[in-house]
Amino acid sequence: MSQETAPTIRRFHGDYRWDATDLLAYKEEGSVPFKAITRQTLFRDPNMAGELRYFEVAPGGYSTLERHEHMHGVLILRGRGQCLVGDQVQAIETHDLVTVPPWSWHQFRAAPDAPLGFLCMVNVERDKPCLPTEAERQALEADPAIAAFLNGSVAYDGARQS
Amino acid sequence: MSQETAPTIRRFHGDYRWDATDLLAYKEEGSVPFKAITRQTLFRDPNMAGELRYFEVAPGGYSTLERHEHMHGVLILRGRGQCLVGDQVQAIETHDLVTVPPWSWHQFRAAPDAPLGFLCMVNVERDKPCLPTEAERQALEADPAIAAFLNGSVAYDGARQS
Asked: Rounded to an integer, what distance in angstroms lies between the CA atom of residue A47 and that of residue A50?
């Protein structure tokens, strides 16, 4: 979507694509910090201070482990998986809400057998994400639950852990 | 939801309610400009310039006909209905996107036999809505399609009009 105002109505297609909305598939390179994730920007306009994106992680895929000053307001639109926010790993299901506070480490992982599609609201004006240093990653992995999550070796039983 | 940062995870309940999220049911008075609509604020935080709300219109209900400088970015989350945006009446279905540009007249109506639930992103800092004067309403109603929509007498066949 360009910086011009979008068409009034953009139709949804059953495959989680929308009219007049580009799909960005991230390129996976050597040392990939993410896997099997796409982005569509649903709302971005010079008159809006917030931006709404739709991310979709394929079964078994995951988003980049990162943190930044800006916040995320996330609504799971499709499927299920798990997320790390701060020092908590939690199961997430369709229509759950996830708040990522400033400077919280976060990563989203789809279940092995289902995609994870989510809306993410951010400020248009925002800082760039920081990736963990080796020392920061080791500090996170000192918690066995976080280590299992980050290494994709968590036993996924689909049950909520709340 | 208060101005404090929300809990990291707020669970979705099958009835389109969320943990730790208040439901506001608008009070219908004498000359009601809306009917059978509720609001839940899903994300509002001092660190975010955008705000995400969930509105639900019961079958046969409708939102206020209004306009304002600030924009709406809308994603239909549940059900179907019709909307007026500017001078166009269009059918809307689950997951369709609706952009309401600055100063466009707009109203959302649920189908007679289905609710219409939608997410709406707005700027936290925004102007108050204006209601139409009698002359403005008459000007809108000069278009028979808009008149039928505003008076709730449109023949709803569930078919998209795009």
From this structure: 9
Helix ranges (DSSP H) in chain B:
134-141, 144-150
Predicted confidence band of residue A162 (pLDDT cuts 50, 70, 90): very low
- In chain A, which among 102-161 make CB contacts under 8 A with chain B? 102, 119, 121-125, 160
Separation in Å, CA B62 to CA A5, A55, A99, B106, B124:
25, 31, 30, 11, 23
Q: B153-158: long-range contacts (C-beta < 8 A, 24 or more apart)?
A: B154/B82, B154/B89, B156/B82, B156/B111, B156/B112, B158/B80, B158/B91, B158/B111
**Looking at CA atoms only, how far is residue A22 from chain B in angstroms?**
14
* Interface pTM, i.e. ipTM: 0.91
What pLDDT is attached to residue B14?
87
